[in-house]
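User: Small ask, check this?
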Amino acid sequence: MRMHLSTAAGFLLLAGVGAAAAQDIIIEPEQETVIREYVKKQPLASVKIPGVELNIGSTLPETVELHEVPETKYRYVVVDNRTVVVDPGTRKIIKIIE
């Protein structure tokens, strides 16, 4: 019985590590500077997205239009007056700029 519990605990631990790693996209400081400067120069109207919490790792629905940030691979949108940086492949929030 002890072996089964250890195996189950190991799988749960690995699943948690995998989920955390998927959310841990780190934007290099140079890229963050490019993003911050660009969104200041290109302000967008703020939108509301009912039912979506603005947290790192949250996924934005396909109905939300994402805007390109030149010189980066990221997209952004302004939600509830907060600039949200998104991975366009997964539509997951990777940074919230206050």
User: Anything to note?
Assistant: The chain has two helices and four strands. The beta strands are 67-68, 75-79, 82-87, 92-97. The chain has one domain: 27-97.
